[in-house]
Amino acid sequence: MAQEIDDSVNRKIIQLLNENGRRSFTELANLVGISEAAARQRVNKLVNSEAIKISAIPDAKALGFHRKALIGIRHQGSMGPLAKKMRDLPEVSKVVVTAGEFDVLLEVVCKDDEHLVRLINESIRSVDGVQTTETFVYLKEEKQTYEWIGQ
């Protein structure tokens, strides 16, 4: 967060919005101890500065997507075009260009194992420059949080 928006009141607002992103400005104001107008201004400043995003977080299993995995890709060539192609795949929820054993890591969400196999074979391994992939299937997610606020 930029210095001008990094203070204890904004951190408390972020924490409260993490707990319930639909809180009203009135409720935020009461919980933080500021006016409703100040709460609205602070939230708008956080959103406009891109320090936070307010959005719905879907539950993949509840929507029929029961297979999540992390896929490591070893690639020969420039990472930019590969990362762009991977970003465009609807099953990909996260793309990370890395240093180390893998050049790119993908987090993917699929309906089932067959869907995952099709994604790997038809949409990932078929891309020019992809040398190998390694897939880490999620058996059980122990923690998934969006509550980090840089403390």
Summed up, the helix count is 5
How many structural domains in the coordinates? 2
* Quantity of strands, as a count: 4
Rg (C-alpha, Å): 20 Å
Task: Classify the fold: give the CATH topology of the largest domain.
Answer: Alpha-Beta Plaits
Principal-axis shape: elongated
Strand order of the largest sheet: 2-3-1-4
Secondary-structure element order, as H and E? HHHEHEEHE
Please identify the top-level CATH class of the largest domain: Alpha Beta
Biggest pleated-sheet summary: 4 strands, antiparallel
- Return the structural class: alpha+beta
What would CATH call the homologous superfamily of the largest domain? Answer: Lrp/AsnC effector binding domain/regulation of amino acid metabolism (RAM) domain
How far do the termini sit from each other?
11 Å
Per CATH, the architecture of the largest domain is 2-Layer Sandwich
Low-confidence stretches: none
Task: Report the β-strand fraction as a percent range.
Answer: 15-25%
Overall average residue pLDDT: 92
- The level of helicity is 25-40%
